[in-house]
Design goal:
Oligomer: single chain
Shape: globular
Strand order of the largest sheet: 1-7-6-4-5
CATH class of the largest domain: Alpha Beta
Helix content: 25-40%
Radius of gyration: 20 Å
Order of helices and strands: EHEEHHEHHHEHEHEHEHEHEHHEEEE
Number of domains: 2
Length: 408
């Protein structure tokens, strides 16, 4: 990992976002982009007053052809490429690729053009509707922006999308398909249909009177997740390629595991059996033992079933070492960015390794007895972190896990 970029409800500047996390701040609040007074849920992790032109030198007409979720990815990638100080005009463009995940894609555009269809007729639909809303549009926009002619693909595995994207990009580099990959996740599903749909299925917290306290992973009073939006993009390079160009290496990806619950389309396996398999596979792929992991950035969505299942999975894999792990959920501060969560939270894993700090889980006021790990409550913890893990589990039973280690 040589470059990191984020767009989050806590901001778009990496150091500012990290500092806010460590101060225990929440980016959740009442939704302002649209009128949601009649909605069951009226809050989320919104990117307020987002204007991509503040970060990108790009023609406004070209930008209008990119949906909000693609714009998030473009801004996060701009930040990551800048930090990596990589010039894609040098070298073989066929060795540079893109792999970005999203769980839903251009929901904003779907809703807009649906209204146009029924209000003004089929001939008034935008000719850019399809290329704006398709999930691979984020990867495509990044490829076009930097003329990256290597692997260009995307992944859609619900809330595991960002983590699967990084893992799949890691595999592409391992097998010699590319030297550099822009990878991560992006999502912009904080829309009227997005909130209404997740609320209707009972997945969201309804704590409208205290939105900043609504995301409370592993707390006995949790009542669902908080829907959020944003992006996390990373520059992943083959190690010797990075060394030859004199890049500053922030951390290394060393393991990737994935599995399926094969239990239910939306509910996790209660025992966390599938999740445990992905965790075990990632550790084995890294050539490590469970005792080598120091910190886990949990999936930790604040749902009654999911948090218990993840706790069970961690206990299954780590045994007695589970009590020595620091496990935190940064979703307590950002909410759930769906397909972008794995990208953003992998950035936090890299920062935890680089800065030797485990970020906190806020709102953990009354720990659930069924969730009995060390979740770094309320305050960040300075500690020795050699290896960090990122867990992501998505609707459809998708389980993905990454292991990162400090650069030696």
């Amino acid at each position: 990992m040589t470059g990191l970029g984020v767009v989050t409800p806590l901001g778009c500047e990496l150091d500012d976002v990290w500092d806010a996390l460590c101060r225990g701040e929440s980016g959740v609040g009442t939704v302002e982009r649209f009128d949601c007074r009649d909605f069951k849920v009226r809050f989320g992790g919104e990117i307020r007053q987002f204007d991509a032109t503040r970060y990108l030198q790009i023609d406004a007409r070209e930008l209008r052809r990119a949906d909000r979720f693609s714009q998030f990815a473009m801004v996060a990638a701009e930040k990551a490429v800048g930090q990596a100080a990589i010039d894609f005009s040098i070298g073989d463009p066929y060795r540079y690729g893109v792999l970005v995940g999203s769980g839903i894609g251009g929901l904003d555009e779907i809703e807009l053009q649906h209204s146009v269809l029924f209000d003004r007729g089929p001939d008034r639909i935008s000719p850019f509707m399809i290329p704006k809303l398709i999930i691979n549009a984020a990867s495509g926009n990044l490829s076009v922006r930097w003329k990256l002619r290597g692997p260009n693909t995307s992944v859609c595995t619900a809330c595991a999308s960002g983590t699967n994207a990084i893992g799949d990009a890691f595999r592409m580099i391992q097998c010699g398909m590319a030297d550099v990959m822009l990878t991560g996740g992006t999502e912009a599903a904080l829309t009227p249909m997005g909130i209404a749909g997740f609320a209707r299925m009972g997945a969201l917290s309804v704590r409208n009177d205290a939105p900043q306290e609504a995301s409370r992973p592993f707390d006995v009073d949790r009542d669902g997740f908080v829907l959020s939006e944003g992006a996390g993009i990373l520059v992943l390079e083959e190690l010797e390629f990075a060394r030859r160009r004199g890049a500053r290496i922030l951390a290394e990806v060393c393991g990737y595991g994935l599995s399926s619950d094969a239990t239910h389309l939306t509910s996790p396996d209660p025992q966390g059996t599938g999740a445990a398999r992905a965790i075990h596979a990632a550790i084995a792929d890294a050539g490590l033992k469970p005792d080598d992991i120091d910190y886990i950035n949990a999936h930790g969505t604040s749902t009654p079933l999911g948090d218990v299942a993840e706790t069970n999975a961690i206990r299954t894999v780590f045994g007695q070492h589970a009590d020595a792990l620091a496990v935190s959920s940064t979703k307590s501060q950002l909410g759930h960015l769906l397909g972008a969560s794995g990208g953003v939270e992998s950035v936090f894993c890299v920062l935890a390794l680089e800065r030797q700090v485990a970020p906190p889980t806020i709102n953990l006021d009354h720990p659930d007895p069924a969730c009995d790990l060390d979740y770094v409550p309320h305050e960040p913890r300075r500690m020795r972190i050699r290896c960090a893990m990122k867990n992501s589990f998505g609707f459809g039973g998708h389980n993905a896990c990454l292991v990162f280690r400090e650069h030696r």
